[in-house]
Amino acid sequence: MPRADTPGTEAAPPGRLRWWTELPLILLVYACYSAGRLLVRGDVSDAVDHGLAILRVEKALRLNAEHPLNRLFTHEPWLGVPADFWYASLHYLVTPLVLVWLFRSRAVRYRAARTWLMTSTFIGLIGFTLLPTCPPRLLDAGHGFVDTMAHYSSWGWWGGEASAPRGLGGMTNQYAAMPSLHVGWALWCGVMLWRFGGTRATRVAGVVYPLVTTVVVMGTANHYFLDAVAGAAAMGAGLLLTPYVLRCARWGRVRAVERSGPAAGAFTRRSAGPVSRVAGPVVGPVVSGGCETSAGERFPRQRDERPRSGAEPDASPADTGDGAPAPAR
Q1: Degrees (nearest 5) of the Cα angle 115, 222, 207?
Q2: Which terminus has fewer CB within 10 Å in the chain: N or C?
Q3: Rounded mean pLDDT of the chain?
Q4: How many angstroms separate the CA atoms of 243 and 251, rounded?
Q5: Cα separation of 38 and 40, whole Å?
Q6: Above pLDDT 90, what percent of the chain?
Q7: In the structure, what pLDDT confidence band is assigned to residue 260 with cuts at 50, 70 and 90?
Q8: What confidence score (pLDDT) does residue 231 get?
Q9: Which of 168, 172, 148 is closest to 223 using CA atoms?
Q10: Residue 286: which H helix or E strand, with range?
Q11: CB of 162 within 8 A of CB of 169?
Q12: pLDDT tens for each residue of 243-254
């Protein structure tokens, strides 16, 4: 017998992404991140203690990449100035560009990639809250670090206080060094370029960008090496949590549809005609989009199935199709 599909039983495709919903969402998340980063300044003395503790751990592990890189960037302007521009601007440019590129050309992967980035960003905010850390450039001069952005402040738009524009240094949290989301976001961009770029150039960029960013954050004395490691770890944790976040978001969308009213679940597909919800067995032949005909009713151009004169009707319904009425006896 013909099978009647009940609407709502087939797997519905995910909702189509729209830029006018995605852009406010991303801006809202970034605004919450920036506001939270600013509000959870922490105690300066605790931040300094945490920075010195990181230096002691690195010394015990024989990790000392920050000092030689910082001296090199300080003594060589042709390295230090581009590094400062790199640190102050590229995470504001590259990360949104990769997001837009994924949205336009890899829409199937975009939702998971965006969720990974946002989840990791909030993990970084938790790190800033629990562990305010003084960056190397703000330690006492006796520790041997030079703030290259203050050193080369005449070359760029930033001031001597932070990478923020001149006069706005007080509007940023300078003790949000652990983890380094400069490195974390660069790593996310590198993974996206490597996996979905499709060319050798994009794969090379996917490797070079996070590596150079790691060198830059240490050479400019904005982060310790362990800050960079923590930034990569935050991205790893965000990657592990992404499936659960997506699942919760999907559950929330389903609940929102259910609360919007019973009629919302009646239309799961779009078709040329109206959608029919069949609660029980079909009575009568369904000929079009839920429109039924009575036993003797014909619709235009219907073929006459009555046997010709002199011909005996076939006792088997094979030629007339399942569900056809049996010939009269």
Answers
A1: 50
A2: C
A3: 75
A4: 12
A5: 6
A6: 41
A7: confident
A8: 96
A9: 148
A10: strand 286-288
A11: yes
A12: 999 998 888 778
Instruction: Report, as an integer, the average pLDDT of 272-292.
Output: 44
- Mapped onto helix, strand or coil, the DSSP state of residue 263 is helix
For residues 130 and 123, what is the distance between their CA atoms, to the nearest angstrom?
Answer: 11
Q: Among positive and negative, which fits the CA dihedral 77, 79, 80, 82? A: positive
**Spatial contact of 304 and 320, defined as CB atoms under 8 Å apart:** no
Max CA distance (Å), the chain:
115
Span of 30-34, 85-89, 272-276 with lowest mean pLDDT:
272-276
Highest mean pLDDT: which of 7-16, 174-183, 227-236, 246-255?
A: 227-236
CB environment 222-235: b (16+ within 10 A), e (fewer): bbbbbbbbbbbbbb
**Residue 121 and residue 132: Cα distance in Å, rounded?**
16
Give the Å distances, CA to CA, from 282 to 6, 299, 317.
Answer: 11, 19, 19
- Dihedral over alpha carbons 28, 34, 40, 42 (to 10 degrees): 170
